[in-house]
Amino acid sequence: MFDLTITGGTLATATDTFAADIGITDGRIAALGHGLEGRDTIDAAGKLVLPGGIEAHCHIAQESATGGMTSDDYTSGSISAAFGGNSCFVPFAAQHRGMGVTETLDLYDSRASGTSVIDYGYHLIVADPTPTVLSEELPAAFARGVTSFKVFMTYDLMRIDDRQFLDILTVARDYGALTMVHAENSGMIAWMTERLLAAGHSQPRYHAVSHPAIAEAEAINRAIALARLVDAPLLIVHVSTPEGATLVADARRDGAKVFGETCTQYLFLSRDDLDRPGMEGAKFMCSPPLRDEATQAALWRHLQAGTFSVFSSDHAPYRFDATGKLAHGPEASFKQIANGMPGIGMRLPMLFSEGVRKGRITLQQFVALSATNAARLYGLKAKGSLAIGMDADIAIWDPEETRIVTAEMQHDNMDYTPFDGREVTGWPTTVLCRGTRVIADGALAVEPGHGRYVAREKIDLTGHPGTRVPELDPATNFGARIVP
Ligand code: URP
Ligand code: ZN
Ligand code: ZN
Questions:
Q1: Ion ligand 3: protein residues whose beta carbon lies under 5 Å
Q2: What domains are defined for the chain?
Q3: What is the value of pTM for the model shown?
Q4: Residues near 440 by Cβ (< 8 Å), separated by ≥ 6?
Q5: What percent of the chain shows pLDDT beyond 90?
Q6: Predicted confidence band at 474 (pLDDT cuts at 50, 70, 90)?
């Protein structure tokens, strides 16, 4: 007799689809079989039973370097994620210059602890890699289960230079952590911005012009070269251009430990959305910016071909009011408007509806992109699949349910959704985190605090041989030992 059984559903993992019941005991999957009995039962007849989604790129209770705070905290952000089919998320803990890493992680612990409805971890943003950070605090972060570090190549107050990037890549490599990078060429963006503003082009639409596609390609190329120099694993986050995706694909084919992520908005929105009347376009400003329809088609092909291991929302919620997008007034220039848009609740419904339902990707690819790949890459060992012994993190989907998207159905702390009015088919109706219903038949069923911090393990690099440059190989560099 199990604590809970999920019966009669169609299960899908990243490799298979099959009919089975699930038996859950002590929050873990204890059995997959037929005729399982539990003290409590969920009837999943006619439904898809999938691993709970893992949202691996979102900004929750995070200050920007200029002080603006995202509108979602760990309660509203996790509730929105859960309604969207997720049972775990990994937001960022942002170190700003002058802050220590341990201090940063303690701060985010105080924000997240006891407030999330789903399990969570953090990626650490490293903006100030001092000698102490590199030699003591990054290893300490790794030891507390923060096994991924994000760096920025742009944003004046966040960006690191190439030499600092190499330092972080090397420390991360030595501990088995994954470095993530926001790759855009800072100088190109600043140069374009200056000229656009001088010519009076300050409306939201010019944000996209100021972040040219070639600025992303240049930075991705450089980031991959830096990672290859030291043979470190690297994930290029929010890839928005075919040029960038091709660089990721080429590096992967060459054996480099390189991974790519793209996001919902780059598949479903375009720079035409920035052209909406008045300041409406500000709702669609993010970095890298939205591109065009040809780019959407190319990114779909890369998703189909396996270039991208991770598909995320990059949920960066700033309300369309004076607390967020309009903090500098209704006449603000694109340079003053907060970057980012919400979408944590729409990542999976959009991908399911437009991807699986329309035959663009298989159900297996959907599961891999929604949970399994992120679990393997980010060291979430007990999550991301339906297998005996794993956490019972499960999303039960009604594949036929059709909804028209509204801001209200996001359950976040936002006043808009960029996907407003879209019709989607396929909806997660019940979501479990460690065997407890977080969402039950479309309603929130737990109190904040159900979610627990998950200490993550090192990245799994099986199948990624890496590259060794001759100048770092003692056999071919006259015996110089660069790394002590
Ligand atoms: O515009 C975006 N994506 N803002 C969030 C911060 C980031 O760079 O991911
Ligand atoms: Zn970024
Ligand atoms: Zn982001």
A1: 314
A2: 53-374 (3.20.20.140)
A3: 0.97
A4: 430
A5: 95
A6: confident
